[in-house]
Design brief:
Length: about 200
Amino acid sequence: MTKQLIAATVLLIATSSCFAMGWNDYRRDIGDGYRIYRCNSYDIGISKYDISISKYSGSVLTGADRNGLIGPLQEYAVTDDYIFAWHCGVNGWDLDQTKEYCYVIEKATSWVIGPISREEFDRRPEVIAASPIKWEIPTHPQPWSLLPLYLLVLGIWLCFMAVSYYWISIPLLAGVILLIWFICSRWPNKARQKESDSVNA
């Protein structure tokens, strides 16, 4: 049993590492040649790309600071002329939400103002003109695309556990089948009873 538990643990660690190495990363188009990129949970920012060259081309405009001061993008907002962004700070490998580093990006020229403090950001004429700002949290553009991968990992793990602990999995599976059969057999009777009651009324 110990060897089986060790094997299951190794399997979970290996699949978790696969998720960490890129399965959750993405590029989200936010219009006019700009996008949100996620290389890992720490490095999330805004980049400019030229689709005529390659969909993978681009230059980073905001992102995590390699010197360990600025963390990932937390929120962004897009207007007709500007993109606003704010990143949290970092303390080692921990995120510091008490620190805010803000940016103003002019879409026409890709000119970046920042990082600046929240107070300075709020005083910018571009920000005042766009108020109230509708902030958005960066998210995966197709979150359900990862579902088959998670189901595959879950299915492999369940098969492994079912074979290893058959004295538990077989009775449990039989119980689930009986429960489904009971529910399915009772449901038509209830439906017919309701229909009969409505006719008699």
